[in-house]
Design goal:
It is a single chain. This protein has 198 residues and is an alpha+beta fold. The chain folds into 2 domains: 2-77, Glutaredoxin, CATH 3.40.30; 83-188, Glutathione S-transferase Yfyf (Class Pi), Chain A, domain 2 (Up-down Bundle). It is 58% helix and 8% strand. It contains 9 helices and 4 strands. The chain has helices at residues 12-21, 33-39, 62-73, 83-113, 119-128, 130-140, 153-167, 176-186, 189-195; strands at 2-5, 26-29, 51-54, 57-60. Strands 2-1-3-4 form a 4-stranded mixed sheet, covered by helices on one side. β3 (51-54) and β4 form a beta hairpin. α4 runs antiparallel to α5 and α4 (83-113) runs parallel beside α7. It is globular, with a radius of gyration of 17 Å.
């Protein structure tokens, strides 16, 4: 039995989305970050969530978990069959982690979880987003999804990060191809199933 540890209101949600897309049976154990270090002792070496166990396999880092799940259980659906396709999944996943996740999460935390938001941190994060969002918008202007004509692990990983932009009221209206693609990704039944648990 696959077990996923973490709150549905955290990065664990993207792993739940992947599990739902793959139609896998799993146990969700809702561990919240404040209690994670205690509850995760002996399960995950970092003491953090999300973490996943699959038989003898234990993984942490949500994007790595998703890549593992897609490659192990999603070949021919969410995992490409060609080396080029696999490279593109890794490319877009790592691009999202390095280029857009940190500024988006900074804005989410400051706007939604701080009594006195750090406006300078918000402004710096907003300033960092247009360049990578333009890269993404240009790419999606010529392609329905990140690696071609069908949704796969790359789309799920990147969309799971950009979904937080909407939560934090980050304006994406200047990126019409990104907006249309994000609507397609977040309109999937598997995403709706996870969203219903939040």
């Amino acid at each position: 039995m696959i077990k996923l540890y973490g709150s549905a209101r955290s990065r664990a949600a993207r792993c739940m989305w992947m599990l739902e897309e793959l139609d896998l049976t799993y146990e969700h154990i809702p561990v919240s970050p404040p209690e994670a270090s205690t509850q995760m002792a002996g399960i995950c070496p970092t003491g953090k969530v999300p973490a996943l166990t699959d038989g003898p396999v234990t993984l942490f880092e949500s994007l790595a978990i998703n890549l593992y799940l897609a490659q192990t259980y999603g070949r021919g659906r969410l995992w490409p069959s060609t080396d080029i396709g696999m490279g593109l999944v890794y490319q877009w996943t790592l691009w999202a982690a390095t280029e857009i996740e940190n500024p988006i999460i900074t804005i989410v935390v400051e706007r939604l979880f701080r009594q006195q938001p750090d406006e300078a941190a918000i402004a710096a994060s907003e300033k960092a987003l247009p360049r990578p969002l333009k890269v993404l918008d240009t790419h999606l202007s010529a392609s329905s999804y990140l690696t071609g004509d069908s949704f796969n692990a790359a789309d799920l990983n990147v969309a799971s990060i950009l979904a937080s932009a909407r939560i934090a009221s980050i304006d994406l209206s200047g990126y019409p191809a990104v907006t249309a693609w994000l609507d397609r990704c977040l309109g999937r039944p598997a995403y709706a199933a996870v969203n219903a648990r939040r």
